[in-house]
Write a structure and sequence with these properties.
Number of strands: 28
Oligomer: single chain
Radius of gyration: 25 Å
Mean pLDDT: 92
Strand content: 25-35%
Largest sheet: 9 strands, antiparallel
Helix content: 10-25%
Structural class: alpha+beta
Distance between the termini: 52 Å
Low-confidence stretches: none
Amino acid sequence: MSSDGDHVAFQNSVNDNLEESNTVLFNDKNYTFITDSTSSAGSFSSGQIQFDLSTLASQSSFVNLVEGFVEFPVKITASIYTAGTGSETTKSIAAAATAIIKNGWHQWIDGCQLIINGQTIQSTQPYENVAATFRQLSTWSQDELVKFGPTCGVALDDMTSDRVNPTAVTGLNNATYSTIAASVKGFDGVNNQTVLNNKGINARNTVTNTDINPASASAQTTILGAAAMKTAGRSHVSSVAAGSNTANAYIYSANYMATVRLKDLCDINDFPMVKNLKGFLYLSFNSSQVNLTGTAGSAVLSAVSPTPLTGRCTPFLINNSSTGLLLGNYATTAPVVQIIGSVDATTTGQQTNAGPLLTNARLLVPYYSANPKADMALTQANKYFTSLEKIVTPIVIPAGSSINYTITSGVANPRKLLLMPMWQNLGGTTNLTNPEVSAFDPVPGCSGIFAEINNLQVYLANKPLYQYPIQYTFEQWLSENSQLGLNGAGINEQTSGLLTEQLFQQNYRFNYVDLSRRMDSEDGTSKSVQVSMTNPSATFGMKVIGIVWYEKKWLINTATCTLQSV
C-alpha cells in the first residue's frame, strides 16, 4: 500500500508550475501605520481608542484590513495607598512578576466597532474579549499559537499538569478546594503554582515581565541597555528593591506594548482588499483598580477590593506571593497596596529607567501595489462578502436552578451560539457576583473551573437542536467543539483549534452550538434563539456570557470603497 507521502512526491514531480512561478501578483507590499485620534500626551482618559481609517485611503494601492494589527500601550502600577502603622517588620515590596496579564492582550478590549463608508460592519457589544478568545480557541492552530501566541500575549491557562513531574504537581483535577479557592481571593490560578503549575501564567510572565533594572545585570540589559529596550518596544517592568511604606509612593511599574490581530477582534475574514478606504475603528478598553489590604501583625492578605475603571473586566492577575508582591508587616495598622492597570502611556509612577513604549495606539495594515492584471481582477464594482455580527448577553443562573432564556426574539441568519460559564461567589470574603473583575481568577480568559452547564437545550425558531438535552461533557465535546477548526476537523492534516477534551472539561467550557444549518428558503428569515440549562452546583451561582453570531451580507466596490447591505 502506498503512503500519503508517495502521492505528494508524485504530484510534485508531475505538476508543471512554470506559469505559476512567472505570475507575480504584486510588485510591492509595505506595512504602514496610523495613530489613534483620542489620546493626549499618552493619556486615554476617554476609555476609548479611535482610528480614522480614511488616513489609509489610497487610489493606487489596496489596503487589506484582515492582516491588520492593533498596538496600544498598557501600564500597570503598584503604589502604597495607605501606609501601615506601628512597629515595622517588613515593608511592602514588589518584584518583576507582581502582575501578569490574563490570557491575551485582547482581554484589555471590552468593545469593538468597525464602520466602513458609513456602514456598521460590527457594532459595539460588551465582552468582546470573550468573543475574541473563542475566535482564537476555535480557529487557531497549534502552529499559529507557537508563532503568534507571544505576540498576542496568548498562552492558555493550562493546569492539567501534563508534561511535568506528577509527584511535584497535582493539577486542577486533583487539587483540594481549600488550596485553590483561598479564603480571601476566591479561586487563585496564579499563586498556587506548586500545586497547579499553570503553564499559561508561566509563559506569559516570561514573555512580558522583563526586569529593566535587575539586581544582577541580565544578558538583555547588558547587551541592549534599558534605553534601547524601550526604543525597540520591549515590554519591561521595574520595582523599588527596598520596598516602601510611604503613602502614594509607587513601588512597581510595568510597561507593555499590547498587540491584537484585527481579525481576532472583528469577524472580517471575508472583507476584501480595497482602495480609498473610509471609515472608523472604535475600541473601548478594560481597566481596573485593585486594593489589597494586609493584616496587622503579619503580611497576610486579608481583603481584596477590585473596581473596574472602564469596561467590565480586570484584564490582569496579581501575584501575591514570594515571587511577586509582599505586603508589609506592621503591628498596629496593615498597609493597603493599590494596583492599577490601564491603557496608558503617561509617565506617572514610573521607576528608574522604565517608561512607556508608545505614546499613541497604532493600527498597522499592509499596502499592496498590484500588477495591472491583478489590479483589474481585484477592482470589482460588485463584490459580495459576508461578515458576522453578534448579540451579547450575560445570563445568571442561581445555585441548583434551571433557566429558560430568550437571547433574541428574532434575528436573520444566525450562525453560531457561544455559552461561556463562570462561577459567582467562588470562595473568599469578597463574594464576587461578577467573577470577571477578579485579579486572581483567570476568567474571562477561560471559563470557571469545572463550570459545566447541565441539561442544555437550544431552540432555534422554537425547534430544539438536540435530540435530547445535553447532560454529559463528552456529548457536547463530540457534537460541537471537536468539529471546530479548518474543514470541520474532517482532514487529519488540516485540523485546527486549540482545545483538547481535557481542557474543555476543566476550565475552557466554551460551549459552542452550530446554528447555521438551514434550507435555502429560510435564508433571511428571522429566527428566535432560546436556551434552557441547569446550574449543577448547589453552592455557587453561575454567570454565563451568551453570544449569538449572525450573518450580514454586503456589496462593495473595491475601487471606491462604497458599501451597502444586501
